[in-house]
């Protein structure tokens, strides 16, 4: 029974603000349900989970979108409603439909509402960035962002209710404005303008930020539109039975979604991989549920196995013998990394290491690509060894190249967490260049683009040079020809000692653009990328001819990581640990000497193996502590590739917002999404596209055990 309201006869204008707020929350929840449907569409288009996980995924996406939009959208609906209560902007839709001063005031009100919304988004983004940078505790930064955001919304509502009516009223009295909006249907014109602005903005953002992904923006825009539509539907400001039934139903969905979120890892994995609104809600929930502040929750499917101990979480390094499972996998394991190995008596003299940015193995004709992208690499493989399953240690340049130079997996390297580009804390770790220099080699590095690594990562190189610098003002560093010229110039300097030269070509990295003189494969992004690979390959041909003319050299050619082209809705790299981003070419051969019989070896190897292999072939003793194994026997044809699971990592930093680990063991791969608390397993031989998740099969259980033992052994703390 609702007692009669004294002012009820005075229409919605007299309704109590508290009541309006409640209706606003109910409307926002309804808008959340609409947004959830959009979000589910995004998930199904990008990473459809297996049929078994589909109902749970749908429920969680819907429930989390309802909860997320209800909490964040309610203040906006309240703002629209409070604006609508004022006589000047009352009955919004009718006013926009009728030419005249009322249309001007209504449109002005709409513009102000969207202006306030945009300002809130920008401010919220700035606060979130600041909080993320200033606080190590994710709970602290989430609370700060939420508090400031709430305060900003309250201030915005107050400002809007005080200023908007006066401003819109004043605009409504401008005759030229009334005339200007009285002609053709303004709504249509407005829709055209807004669409054009969206398309232009999207193009500008893509040109400015090469890794701009429009889907999250579209999903959030859909959510915002759903919120505004829900506000304009105006089912009445009295809380009727229908509103209560709707709110009750939506609340039940949210509760069911929270329960399902804790119980359905495959659904969490799909949401973390590609949902937008529900992913944000799930991350926020995990942050709030993270009791010990180590970045991982124990509840709601979070992967922290002891949420009362900051030192125990899935990204921790295992410490042997403390009777504790520090990294939540594999028990209290941990074995010391390989010890030093004496030099076997080397065969290599000069060493040329070439890395190309962003080249996946299956885009090189050396690995069977349909386009003739790499005839030079194929020719080199024809006189040496081609590793068919070579994996990067991490699909970002900043982690992969140090892993290659140090022969260590990224999370065992002392990266300084405070810096934007990776900088290592003071260390005395052995490096490929340092050990070669110690053995009398002249060492040098040439970068197509500088700033990716600093002197802490380049330890051991006597000198290095970069043609351009990454960051502000960097546009399209297609400079493979210039890099090659510099390399030939360096090699032309006479010196009595053997040399080690490392060259990093950047051309195939996005943005993609077919270089002058390169083959024209087409006008799609991938066509340009392939043309850049072909261009670099031709330059490598020029370089190898120069090297051959000057004597013999051991040549190692690989890439720092692969590149995605829409697989699982993902472009570029550094986004997940699937093969398109992780599997790279790796060819080792001698030029200027007698060719060996060509061999293709299928045992998985890693970029961390390059350093010990080159040292071994150069006759330099292997230092202790490297994760890599020497492939020298396989290169010389005197023994097999050492078989062991290789580790892949995605490390969270200022550019990467996910933590993932994976192993490739023979034909099989297991990927652990630490944020989602979910594992997936694949048979790479039968299912190279990694579509058929085998984690629930006996193979999944075997791989899970292998993962625990491997991570403890390879990434464990000394
Ligand atoms: Zn790269």
Walkthrough of the structure:
With 718 residues, the protein is α/β, with parallel strands linked by helices. The protein is built from 20 helices and 17 strands. Strand 8 (564-565) and strand 9 (571-572) form a beta hairpin. The longest helix has 35 residues, at 138-172. The radius of gyration is 30 Å and the shape is globular. Zinc ion binds at residues 357-358, 397, 509, 560-561.
Secondary structure category: alpha/beta
Percent helix among the residues?
40-55%
Shape: globular
Give the neighbour order of strands across the main sheet.
5-4-6-1-7-11-2-12
Bound small molecules, deduplicated: zinc ion
| Strand runs, count | 17
Average predicted confidence as pLDDT = 83
Q: For the CA atoms, what is the radius of gyration? A: 30 Å
User: Could you give a short account of the major beta sheet?
Assistant: 8 strands, mixed
What distance separates the N and C termini? 70 Å
Separate helix tally: 20
Unreliable runs: 1-14
What proportion strand?
Answer: 5-15%
